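The record is kept unedited without comment:

——
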Amino acid sequence: MSIHTTAAAVFAGVIPAFTLHLEVWVLSLAIGLSGVYIARVIGPKVVPVGAPVVSRRQVLSFWSAVALMTLMAIWPMHDIAEQRLYSAHMFQHLVLTLVVPPLFWLSCPQWLAQLLVGTDGWLWRTVRWVGRPVAAWGIFNAFNLFSHWAPFVNAAVTNGPFHFSVHVIFVLTALIMWIPVCGPWPELRLSLPGQMVYLFLQSVVPTLPAAWLANSETVVYSSYDQPIRLWGISALDDQIASGLVMKLVEVAYLWGIIITLFFRWASRHQEADRHGLDLTERQILEWEGGDGGGLSASPVARPTTQRPDL
């Protein structure tokens, strides 16, 4: 699409007109500056001399998370998702809940998590409770399923502050959901087989609203049933596309992670067998330690944590 065509579409009202979304830029800037301050000022005071404050992978994960979060919440993505296409809304939520939160966790070193939450007290007990697999999975998916209720969706896309609050809750509940997989607390992470089962169950949930939306013969959300159609996509086709985003894209993304975890688990067992080591799944998870969590750490010969309660 050429610049002239894009401009014409904007002024014709097909693509929503540019909106600054200052609150998003302020939030992203605050998070970015906080990350820089923590890494350059607080970290050197906490981490032992000679030890790295953060790794390159953690820096890359942090800025990737900030960039993706910002792109999903500003023009044109946010405005198209809010005013034109529910399928864009679903893709936006996919990135904000399944991509951004694990990147933030992978960017968080263990020393920072312990500094913020502590190792005792009510805050740590709260994190430990919500970080249990059943609780974490249930909290996120309860809100996720509730968010497909028609009055809820219609209210969110017609009320800016409410929509912003919904996104904040989505990210917070998603952060909770990812704790058993890649949270910065090793003792709250599941073993690699446990993570695979956990993510498999997570991949099942989107198929429920996806099937409902894709097979509905009427438009479910009245706020998206409007005469202004982006790229000629009808409201019903957009609704079907939103179901496909959840059923195909979201599930494929989660299964990609499951496959990655499987090959990591298999390679670690193979390496342990080659060295004649009989390791537990907890030891396999922590092989060689590291702050990356279940998605990036490699195993240790001696476990330092216990398996979390379900």
